[in-house]
Every structure is written in C-alpha cells, then in structure tokens.
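Ticket #4471: structure export looks truncated?
Reporter: QA, pipeline team
Priority: medium

Steps to reproduce: submit the single chain below to the structure queue and open the exported record.
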Amino acid sequence: MRIQLHPLLLACVSIFLLSGYAHGTAPQQTYKHSYVAFQTGEEKPRTVAARFSKPKQAVLPLPTIIIVHGSGGVDARGTTYSKAFNQSGMATLEIDMWAARGLEGGLSRPKHVRDTLPDIYAAIEYLKSRQDVDSEKLGLIGFSWGGVVAMLMSGAKESQAITALVANYPVCWAYNKVPGYPFKEVAGQKQLLIVSGEEDQYDGPQDCINLVEQLPPESRANTTLKVLPNATHAFDLIQQDSTFYDPYAFRGEGGHVPLKYNQEATKLSTMLSTSFFLEHFEHSL
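Actual output as written to the record:
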C-alpha cells in the first residue's frame, strides 16, 4: 500500500490550501470554463453535458482530470476540487451523468454503477479531441458513486487512457461481494488513491484496509489508502448536517447514513488528490 507523495509538491499544495484561495477569496479570472456536450458510444447514444475548466495562464496542452459526481448529482464538491486542480495547472471536465438520463439524483439513479461507465469512455474520447488537453495525462476523481466509478476504472484492462484515479469514500465493503463490483487488481500502469472517512457508516472500520491488503503485491504498490479522522461519508460536501438513506449503507444492511461537512478533512483530501495527480503526471513525462 503506497502513501508516498512528493515532499515539494505537498509543500506547494499546502501553501495553496492555507491561502485565501482555499477559502473562496481567490483572485478573479484565474481560470475559465465552458459548457460542452458529447455523445456516448452506446447503441442508443446519450448526450452528456459537462463543464470544462482550465487555468487562464498555463502551458498547453494540459493534464486533465475528469470529475465524477455522487448519487446526489453535480454539487459543490466538483467546484472545490476543480478550483484546486486548475490552480495547480490542470484542466478539469466535470460531467453530469444524471441529466443525460433524466434522473434527479439520490435514489433516483441507475441500478448499477457500470451503467454509467459509457459516460466516462465518451468523456475520454471528447478530451482526446481537444488540442489544449494532453491525452497522455488523463486522471479521474469520483465521489461515492463516482468513487465506485474510479474503482472499476482502475481495474479495467481494456482502457489505459486514464492512468491516475482518486476514489473518495467508494463503499469499500461491496467489492468482490456484490455482483458486478470486482476489485482484484489495479491494471497496467495505473495508480489509485482511495480516500475514506473514519466515521463513514457505509463501511466497517477495517473494510478499506482489508480491501487494499487483498490485492496482489504489484497492485498494492500502486494503491494509496488514506483514512481521514472525524470524517463521515461525503465529508467534503458543504451542506448542513444531514442523513441519507441508502440500501448499501451499513455494509449492505441499509440505513440512514450521517453526512457532515468537515473543513479540515476537505483541505487534506484536496491537498492529497492534487499532489497525487501532479506527482503521477510528473513521473509520466
């Protein structure tokens, strides 16, 4: 299990996170964004809407991170991480999987996470078509449902386009137990960062640790697990404390999961994911 991040990159990102930018007081117009759409390659194609953001002052082409939302749909988490990545010289593509399906979010979601993977492959092809994107340096970060997307993509041998993946609280107990959710390896040259909350009630205390430890040695070496203290599921979503019912919560027994925003955990998670991507792309030169 890997937990080594480049000290210089950590220091640079730490300075950024402690600056006014991390608290919403960034200089204006440091990045720009546009709204785009592209079609999936399914037999009945869907049109996926997305927001593409990039720093205004940057050397092109740019490393680019696909941002994949949770069950609630596009929310403030995407904005938080997109700003951090843009400020660090990376572009982002935040996709909306629910609008493409006429869904409202929450439990109004597809039956299986695999149903949304065509959106990811379509996003990859779209990014490859852009001259301002470095198609050799593509990453992905996902939250909850999107975290499961990251886990599944990390083991997908058929696609090596995305080589760095971050899975935020991806429901660790379910893999290799629930049909259609395998996690037996990190394929090829991919690297995976899993960020979980110590108080996440989807999982038991050791579930994420046990999941990583069962990987073969090479895959385990390409996987980093960080468990954040005092962090619930969706700790990085700015909202009032609440609960969310999910039949997959409490290790599949179902129940109301507490959701509580944790500013310090969010800062740390943002720093870790930014450093992870920067280090990975630096070494892939």
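Status: closed, not a bug. The export was complete when the record was re-opened. Leaving a note from the reviewer for reference: Confidence is low (pLDDT under 50) at residues 2-27.
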